[in-house]
Write a structure and sequence with these properties.
Elements lengths: L23 H12 L13 H24 L6 H14 L3 E2 L12 E4 L2 E3 L14 E10 L2 E10 L5 H19 L7 H14 L3 E2 L5 E3 L6 E5 L16 E4 L2 E3 L5 E3 L7 E3 L5 E3 L2 E5 L4 E5 L1
Antiparallel strand pairs: 1-4, 2-4, 3-12, 4-5, 6-10, 7-8, 9-14, 10-13, 11-12, 14-15
Length: 291
């Protein structure tokens, strides 16, 4: 049960105000939803003003990394060169690559090409070819705060079919953003993503989704994109999570590389695309923190 605190105690948000004149009414609203059987975020998932400031500073580095990749990426370069760009940009700006060493992941960024859905491992032996599509998924730690976003890149002369997949996947994310509305359910957002993909003849990966982010790399909730309207956790101002649909040209079935136990592939070998943003739920809608 969502717990209130003594009315004259300092508010949990760190504002320095008394609880009764700060977040008491806010908490009452959450409790009303909880009493209706709706899953609500734990207070630990609601970011304070200090948290948001820290996440935004982390995101400056994260986006600078992706900007640097955008400037330099080309056919003939190895994915290890992308990893080097990420590591050098991150550390030069005072950050730490969140991917590096996370649960044993060996590199500073994920580079997923064509039929690789996610978690591709950079290598000197993997060379970008004309016509490839690649997702570069970057995550940064700065002063204990996490940012996370990814972008798709089209290498050289990409086929119209691949280019359409990349474009529609970005549209799916944009459709989801329209449904990030405070005091509604996160399933509404996922449903919008899924319906746009289906309308365009694509599928969405079920097993892997977005996540809360900010004070930790991966927080609750798990963010699915194959949901029904009016389901899932209540979106409350202060929540931060990623929207990162993985959209496949063919089947939604996937498998994990048995050798490295990381890279995820489409089961039918057809291309997959993903865009990722980190979003803050606000009183009036949302704010993009990292993209």
């Amino acid at each position: 049960m969502y717990k209130k605190i003594e009315r004259n105690a300092p508010c949990w948000c760190g504002s320095g105000k008394k609880y009764k004149s700060c977040h008491e009414a806010f908490d009452d609203k959450i409790i009303k939803y909880e009493m209706q059987g709706i899953r609500v975020p734990d207070r630990s998932l609601l970011k304070t003003a200090k948290d948001i400031e820290g996440i935004k500073k982390s995101a400056v580095i994260n986006m600078a990394c992706l900007d640097a990749v955008a400037e330099q990426i080309h056919a003939g370069m190895s994915t290890q060169e992308i990893d080097d760009i990420i590591y050098e940009t991150t550390t030069k700006m005072g950050g730490i690559p969140a991917d590096l060493g996370y649960e044993g992941f060996p590199k500073s960024v994920c580079t997923s090409i064509n039929d690789e859905v996610c978690h591709g491992i950079p290598s000197e032996d993997i060379i970008l070819q004309d016509g490839d599509i690649i997702n570069v998924d970057c995550s940064t730690i700065l002063d204990g705060y996490f940012s996370d976003s990814s972008r798709m890149f089209c290498i050289g002369n990409v086929s119209p079919e691949k280019k359409r997949l990349v474009d529609v996947t970005k549209e799916c994310l944009e459709e989801g953003l329209k449904k990030v509305i405070p005091w509604t359910r996160i399933g509404d957002m996922g449903y919008a993503v899924h319906q746009h993909a289906l309308k365009n003849g694509y599928t969405v990966v079920k097993e892997i989704g977005g996540h809360g982010c900010g004070n930790e790399f991966h927080e609750d909730p798990f963010v699915s994109y194959v949901t029904k309207p009016n389901t899932g956790m209540l979106m409350v101002p202060g929540m931060v999570f990623t929207i990162e649909p993985m959209v496949n040209m063919g089947t939604d079935e996937i498998f994990v590389d048995e050798e490295n136990d990381w890279t995820v592939y489409t089961a039918d070998g057809k291309p997959s695309a993903q865009w990722e943003v980190e979003v803050l739920v606000t009183e009036t809608g949302y704010e993009l923190l990292s993209w």
